[in-house]
Design brief:
It is built from 22 helices and no strands. By secondary structure, the protein is an all-alpha fold.
């Protein structure tokens, strides 16, 4: 086991891509132990030959098309008219816009790259500090994978055998709490720093922007409503989201061209290839860990630190936050999830609750140095040096951390809705 982890970490330090590092380490183990090479082929194929993973390319395509079709512009206009008059108006617009957009995209990166471009420019033009604008944009982008649909929750569900529909619904209350605490943070910061607020929109302006946004606002209801009513599965919901976005872009808004569609389709293929390759390598690595009975050893290790469920959750949170500082979210999710399942079972922790906790941990990790992916994107979009971008995110750890603590120690926040709606 020491050799296995040592090989993986060594390759990562040398700059080898994560999927290659996990795959090569696992391959070395299989070769040294004299196992047939066919095992590698079987595990790699089985890891991606899962029906729920079909949702991945369609959700990625839907997110790409929303940005390309100008859907984000309409969302931002509606959010601005709805909450722009509050103290620190554009900060609230940032959160509210991301909250709506998260109901369609399923990823933090789509939010940061799509709405982030509009939000950062608007806040800079209104005189907001660069650090505040970047920090709130990064924090609001973390709503994307918490509020359904969610690409990380799909991968977690596939890896652990957890109901994806239950995971989607379990993210609603935590997503609302995140938005509320971020709004409160912006309100306090706005009063302390004297940030401006926009002129209150008239009812006519608000109504006009709402009407223009109706096709977009319907999307989250269609996706989640279809799942709850049993019209389609979470996997099929991804296809519905992509087709619905195409209809909005080509028929309703008429802002999407065939050339743009081909470009976004190619981008979705490339991103899907990265995700699937990473998934295959991580699951092969996980298979080796299972064969070595690592899960049982990890359970014994955890029991030495914790005797109560809340203590276990605290230790796991610290572990995931530390991992999030040095690794991308997907490898952590794919490698860590199968290992920790026996721990959850031994402490009686619900897998659905932990799935939401884990995804929020990984989203906070995307805002932390040294390799926070959201910060790299926003640094490029804003022109702010990377070190200052990371520093800008620090104040927003508090509201997100409070929500993380609440959903870790209060299972009802994540489990009540799934139990009520999925009887």
């Amino acid at each position: 086991m020491v050799l296995l982890f040592g090989a993986m970490l060594g390759l990562l330090i040398l700059g080898v891509p994560v999927f290659a590092a996990t795959g090569i380490a696992a391959l070395a183990y299989i070769t040294l132990n004299g196992l047939p090479a066919l095992v590698v082929v079987q595990q790699l194929f089985d890891s991606v030959d899962k029906f729920p993973l079909l949702a991945v390319p369609f959700f990625i395509l839907a997110g790409n098309l929303m940005n390309s079709a100008g859907i984000t512009d309409r969302l931002y206009a509606f959010a601005s008219h709805a909450v722009g008059h509050l103290h620190g108006g554009l900060g609230h617009v940032n959160i509210f816009g991301s909250f709506i957009f998260s109901g369609m995209s399923g990823t933090a990166m789509a939010d940061a790259a799509g709405l982030g471009t509009i939000e950062l420019k608007a806040m800079k033009d209104e005189g907001y500090d660069d650090e505040f604008a970047v920090g709130i944009t990064a924090a609001s982008a973390t709503l994307g994978p918490i509020i359904p649909p969610s690409l990380p929750m799909i991968l977690y569900g596939v890896t652990t055998g957890t109901s994806i529909g239950a995971l989607f619904i379990a993210g609603i209350v935590p997503g609302l709490l995140m938005a509320i605490f971020l709004h409160a943070h912006v309100a306090l910061a706005a009063k302390a720093r004297g940030y401006p607020r926009s002129v209150r929109a008239t009812w006519a302006q608000l109504g006009h922007s709402f009407l223009r946004s109706i096709p977009v606002l319907l999307a989250p209801g269609i996706i989640l409503g279809g799942i709850l009513l049993g019209i389609f599965t979470p996997t099929e919901a991804a296809v519905v989201a992509a087709v619905y976005t195409l209809l909005i872009g080509f028929v309703v808004l008429r802002t999407l061209t065939p050339l743009q569609f081909v470009k976004e389709l190619r981008g979705a293929f490339e991103t899907t290839a990265v995700v699937m390759t990473m998934t295959a390598g991580a699951i092969l690595f996980g298979w080796v860990l299972v064969r070595e009975n690592f899960a049982a050893q990890f359970v014994a290790f955890m029991l030495s630190f914790a005797s109560e469920p809340w203590q276990c959750m605290l230790v796991l949170n610290v572990a995931m936050l530390l991992c999030g500082m040095f690794m991308d979210p997907l490898p952590i999710l794919l490698i860590f999830s199968p290992i920790v399942m026996p721990v959850l079972d031994s402490f009686g922790i619900d897998r659905v609750q932990f799935g939401v906790v884990m995804v929020l941990n990984l989203m906070i990790g995307m805002m932390t140095p040294p390799i926070g992916a959201i910060c790299f994107v926003l640094s490029r979009l804003s022109g702010l040096p990377l070190a200052r971008t990371f520093r800008a995110c620090v104040p927003f750890y508090l509201p997100l951390g409070i929500v993380l603590l609440l959903i870790s120690v209060l299972p009802a926040l994540t489990l009540t809705l799934p139990r009520l709606l999925l009887k």
